[in-house]
Structure formats: C-alpha cells, structure tokens
Amino acid sequence: MFTRNNDAFTWLDYNRNPDKKSPLLVMLHGYGSNERDLIMLAPTLDPRLRVVSVRAPLVLAPEMYGWFPIEFTPGGITVDREAARQVAEKLVTFLEHLIEKLQPTGEKTFLMGFSQGSVMSYLTAFRNPELLHGVVALSGQLPDARPEAGALPEALGDVPFLVQHGLFDDVLPIDRGRQANAWLRDRIADLTYREYPMAHQINQASLDFLASWLSERIDRVVS
Q1: What is residue 159's three-state secondary structure?
Q2: I need a surface site. Which of 104, 105, 106, 170 has the fewest CB within 10 A?
Q3: How many helices (H) and strands (E) does the chain have?
Q4: Which of 191, 134, 137, 126 is nearest to 164 (CA)?
Q5: CA pair distance 116, 138, nearest whole angstrom
Q6: Rounded Cα gap, residues 18 and 14, in angstroms
C-alpha cells in the first residue's frame, strides 16, 4: 500500500483514494529516524488524506537520517543554522514540485513534523505559508533563527497550527513547547496547544486529538 519514490528526496506515498483528488499530508520525521516511522500512523488518520512521508537527506547511520547537523552539549543542543537554512530551501522546492505533481485538493498540503521535523515544519511555514493548509508540530521547538515580526509573511497568520508536547520529554523539555505556544499565540489566528503526560513520543491521547484536529481542518478544505 506504500509506494516508494526517489527524486529530490526519498519519500513514501500512502494513497487510499487513487482515483480522485485528496487533501495531502506531508510528514517529516525526527533526527535519527527515517520515512517509515511516522507513516505508520497514516492508516489511523482521516481516510480522505493522501499521506507522503519524506526521508531527511543527512545520513547518520544505516536507516538513520537527519535534516541538519546538531550536536548534544552540556549546555543543550547546538544547531548548524546554515545547513538548516539550505535544507529548508530544498524542502520548499520539493513541496512546490510535489503539489504540482500530485494535484492535491486545494493545491496545498498539511505539514506534520516530529522533533527535528517540527523545526523543518516551522521553517517552511515561516518562509512559504502559502503552500500550507496547516502545521502539526510534535515534540519540537521553534527554530533558533526566526524572522522578525515585520518580516513574517502576512499569510502565516491564517495557517492553522497544532502544537503538542510531552510533559516528561527528556530530549526537548516541555519548556520548548511552551515557548512555541507563547511565540505563536500573538501571530497565529488558529493555534491549538496541548500537553500530554508522555516523554519524547506520540501517545494514544495525542494521536487521537491530532486525528480529530486534522479532520476538522480537512472539512474546511473540502467544503
């Protein structure tokens, strides 16, 4: 049921409705994972969705990939900002071509990222919100480098955001989710923030809410 594709990125395609247009969800996995991770959630999500899961380009080890280099230090995680900027540009171009190729409903995509994939989702939204129906940021954090308020695209405010984080996250502590919520609160008209008693993961309660949140926004897209 999954179809593998290789072009600018390697990606898996899960399409339950091949004979008609569908809303599109693009998944971005976390650091050290791969494209087979998040897409296993696809069958539990709204059946109207076509789901694409993208493999990050940085090879860390066999079957382990990252979007950009990071380093774990006593003071926290440090980021290669230039590498992050470059891969964000490449991802935007990929999404533009993917939308043109797949012709999804509304000619946009939902974007869902976990951990480092959340950072990529934020970077994409802050750069090209016109490509997006909505953003789901799971167990992530805002990018270190963010546009100033006056430099943010006006269309960003109209993109729905769902931010979820675990209270017991020992990789990206809960304050990262709360910081994202506080920063987005004054900038996003449709922002939903939820905390769950979980670690650096997606538990059943967070998945159930994510699925219902997506279904509500899909209703808007197809209406």
Answers
A1: coil
A2: 170
A3: 4, 12
A4: 137
A5: 9
A6: 10
CB-based contact 39:53 (threshold 8 Å):
yes
CB-CB contact of 140 with 180 (8 Å):
yes
Comparing 201 with 223, the larger pLDDT belongs to 201
What lies within 8 Å, CB to CB, of 116 at 6+ separation is: 28, 30, 31, 56, 66, 67, 68, 70, 140
Closest CA to 71 of 85, 87, 84: 84
Q: Distance between CA 72 and CA 93 in Å, rounded?
A: 30
* Token pair belonging to 189: 């008209």
Q: Please give the structure tokens belonging to residue 40.
A: 């296993």
Dihedral sign for Cα atoms in the order 141, 213, 200, 111: negative
Residue carrying structure tokens 């506080």: 182
- pLDDT tens profile 45-97: 999 999 999 999 999 999 999 999 988 777 667 778 889 889 999 999 999 99
Closest listed residue to residue 98, CA positions, set 62, 67, 128, 143: 128
- pTM comes to 0.95
A 10 A CB-CB count for 30 gives: 26
The two three-digit tokens of residue 15, written as one number: 């399409």
DSSP state of 105: G
Partnered with residue 101 across adjacent β-strands are: none
